[in-house]
Amino acid sequence: MGNSGLSDITPFITSEVVDNSNEFFLSASVLDMRKGKQMKSKCSNCSTPTDPFLTALVNGKLVCINCISIPVECCSHCEKQLGEYALIIGDKKYCSTCEKLYDTCDTCMRHTLRTILRRSVDDGKVCHTCISLGTHHECHVCKKYASTKQLRTLGANLVCSGCHNTHTRCRCCAMVVKREDYLAFTDSCRICAANMVPVKKYSTKATDFCKCWHVNSCGGLSSTDQPLAKLPYYGVELEVEVVGKLDGRGRMIVSDARIEQVARQVLAQLSGFAILKKDSSIKHGFEIVTAPASIKAQKQKWEKFFTWLEQQDEPPIVSFNTDTCGMHVHISRSCLTTMQIGKMMQFMYNPVNAAFITTIAQRNPAKYAEINSMRTIKDCTPLRQEENRQALAWNRQLRHTAFNTIPEKTVELRIFRGNTSRDGFLANLEFCQALMDFCASGVVSIEDATRWENLCEFIHTHHSCYPYLHKFLANKNLVSRVFRERTRRNAKTCA
After folding, report:
1. Contacts for 456-460: CB closer than 8 Å, 24+ residues apart
2. Domain-by-domain residue ranges, the chain?
3. Please, which of 71, 94, 277, 315 could form a disulfide with 87 given CB 3.0 to 4.6 Å?
4. Contact of 303 with 293, CB cutoff 8 Å
5. Is this model's pTM higher than 0.85 or not?
6. Which residue from 35, 37, 36, 17 is spatially nearest to 26, judged by alpha carbons?
7. What CATH class has 201-490?
8. pLDDT in tens, 108-155
9. 286 neighbors 279 (Cβ within 8 angstroms)
10. How far apart are CA 93 and CA 84, in angstroms?
């Protein structure tokens, strides 16, 4: 009902006159009075008792004739009747509900809907009018709006002064990157630096070009410059050979251009996570070395690589069906105790477990992964470790063992055959995780930690944590065999 006709209503409505229009009609109370019923009416607006013959039904409510004659003020947004509280801005009024939908632009002070306001770099608000006039522009990095005085240029991009201090421009790809991802000695970002020379020399470290990765509490990937304390980090070294053409004698011919081409394709799948290195044991390939990453981060980062390989008509690289390629896994020492490392060493060098380890590794021990049965848990003491590091200076072969404890920040398992299939690669990775968890304090005793049957039982009990490894053991009939032998042993004991 509009406000224009309210003041024209006759301040008295008799029982003889009935207004049947859409705006007003006699209330039910009036009709009941005609039938001889004594009823009292109360105005829904001013709550004043009134004569039933002096009421009308307005918007479904009984209103006395005095209130009808007063103009009703409505909200400028929802057009509902205003209550006792109203927000007045210029010539417009808003109810308490609609007030929450509006806010003020910090630049022009206009009252604007919150949905079309944009956040500024100083945590203020900018309306669409100020943006369209060109007084504010969006920062290329943080996507917030800044005034022309707060903007800087990085190449062809506009950034705010805050992002200008924390970001820079890569000379190679012309992208705006964080300063921590910019390598001054190459004048480029980490990714471009890794791609300049695809296959780097053997002494290059992955942490010079890549960050450390882990999965945060929200399930997303996060990176840090240094590994987080007490979080298990794994580093993978996967040796691969590039597939070339066969000559007339059946020998593989691979040119340097072919190796570089395939190397760049591999780097595109593992960008920012791994580098490629030369290795003297590889004939015509390279070694893929990842940055330190948690087990979940490793699985997520390698997924793109495995998908790319599966989409190829002919695999550009091979690793399993060669006699030169292996797979090494490093585990950070920060999450391991000396006793835990000792249990792992005792398990790896126990002669009883030799056949089981050969099955897991899918290759026989060689000079680069020798299983030395003479090593025991005593070799993990700090004094013995320091002696081994000093001896490494004149005998580099000391690190060519199945379980290498010489590195200061990691321990290394070197037993695996190289594998570029998803199931085989992740089964090797999960074996390192399972062995570390199995040898943790409070899980098993030193004596029980030396038996492969106990490890298989542990993996079967926690099979959801090691799905690829458990599948591998089941295919090798190792899990079922363990439980058959235990059932037979228990039956003899009970008898």
Report:
1. 456/482, 457/482, 457/483, 457/486, 458/434, 459/434
2. 1-72, 201-490
3. 94
4. no
5. no
6. 17
7. alpha beta
8. 887 788 888 888 888 888 988 888 888 888 998 888 998 888 888 888
9. yes
10. 12
